[in-house]
Specification:
The structure holds 2 protein chains of 2 kinds. By secondary structure, chain A is α+β, with helices and mostly antiparallel strands. In chain A, 28% of the residues lie in helices and 11% in strands. Chain A has a domain of 106 residues: Alpha-Beta Plaits (2-Layer Sandwich), CATH 3.30.70.3270. In chain A, strands 2-3-5 form a 3-stranded antiparallel sheet. A two-stranded antiparallel ribbon of chain A has the order 1-4. Chain B has one domain. In chain B, a hairpin with a 3-residue loop joins strand 3 and strand 4. The chains are: A alpha+beta, B mainly alpha.
Amino acid sequence: MISVKKVNNKPLNLLERIYLREIARGIAVTTRHFFTNLLNPKGMPTIRYPEQTRPLPGNANLRTRHRLKMRSDGSPKCVACFMCQTACPAYCIHIEAAEYTENTVEKYPAVFDIDLSRCVMCGMCVEACPEDAIAMDTREIPGGALTREEMIMTKESLLRNLPDGSAHAQSGNARSGYDLTTPSEEEPSRKGAANRLANEYLKSRGEE
Amino acid sequence: MEFFEANKDILLFTGIAGAKILAFLGAVMGFTALMTLAERKVSSLMQDRIGPNRASVFGFSFNGLFHPIADAIKMIMKEDFVPGRAQKLLFTLAPFFALVPVLALFAVIPFGDYVMIYGYQVELQIADLPLGLFFILALSGLAIYGVFLGGWASKSNFALLGAMRGAAQMVSYEVVLGLTLVGLMMIYGTASLQDMVRAQGSLLLGFIPAWGIIYQPFAFILFMTAAIAENKRTPFDLVEGESEIIGYFMEYSSMRFAAFMFAEFIEIVLISMLAATLFFGGWQVPYLYDTGFLFPGGPALPMNHYLVAALQAGAFTAKTVFFCWFLLIVRWTLPRFRFDQLMGLCWKALLPLALLNILITGAVLTILAR
């Protein structure tokens, strides 16, 4: 059964068919907008985007710029397992793994680059991460850049903890920035089983 | 020295004409370059946007003032592409056919009355042709060649279709454009634009300026409609249809394409100047005469000759700018006509109305002459 919607378009009356009055009304609307915006440019809803930003709406679950979570000692939670790089549909993650000298249990990323010019902000890396080490909750929207090199985020720019677990919900200005030098309390991790196991393993070995 | 003495008149005439051409065309071209920016800025303001503001010199962007320069540099740097099967000669000539007639038309536009310089009376018009109006109609008819040669010489079916639409549209509206101006010629009894403007300096009933719009308000609406259609801009932009339809300059790139685009923008300025000249008194300021203001009822304000000339040129500029703005507003307000509506509007509505306008004007003039 095809549903049919009957549209009752009124036939145009003579005044409307002459079209001139309608043109005048249309021009009145656009002219009003023109002069309103000319005299009060601040009132326009449009902003000069990369320089100006505006608070993201409410507590919306947005996939924003990535970050790598840190442990309380400032080392990355990431264990360089390459899961995110494998999951990435845009091939924008580049990881080079290295080993801790004092710790033979786990690896760490010597290089962790995300090419924002390729990233499609799909969040697959966050889904794939077994350590809950990568997140897209900074509430910063990646802006444009003039060169390709500027679009690549390195490990240093990715490593950051949010000021505290809930602060990001209120952080209005996306460019307010986070304190990168002093890592805050380690964030509670939903997953991080390997981290916990690694810590327990190291602890048990130290006791022997 | 003897040579200069013997040919003084010719040299003087050449010098003055050259100076006028340089000054007027320079002003027009500069203004047109700004029009390309104004088009984007006006449309953006109408739509609550900011518009182009990125092009900057040493970090100063002046809200986008450098965009015409950036556009020009971009156009020049692009590859000058000629399709392999195109007719090279016609393909090269077409942009000139689009640009040159439009530029030549400015010769007959009076941008002021006259100035006395060292005792010489310099008319503020490049060429005061007795048949200026016919000159305008003839040359604007020539602009069709630019469209059609461009489409034909590209040897592209889409471009040819666009050119055919363009030719049909421009030929049709050319007729209306000519007929709307007949009424003015009948009233002012001249086809010279300078004489028409001078005639518009008189007063009706002692206080209404005798501008063309007072005599022929109906012809003004017809003229603007036909002129926008001649100009191939929305709501009559079926020739190019920059958003969907493919136009006659489809195969053009680089500065050749820019020539077509620039011709269109110069035409906006030209139409604005024509509308101001024919219907809104050209350089006339109401109640301003050679010696200064003379208001109806007695009060007078005597003024310097140069001040008067500057005021008049300024009035012409202001009227032109207003109509340019108006044309931009119209272009960004109205949706596009369908092609059958376009042709129907021309042949079934505008043409009979233009003829009716001539008939009524003639009848009224005959009755008044009795």
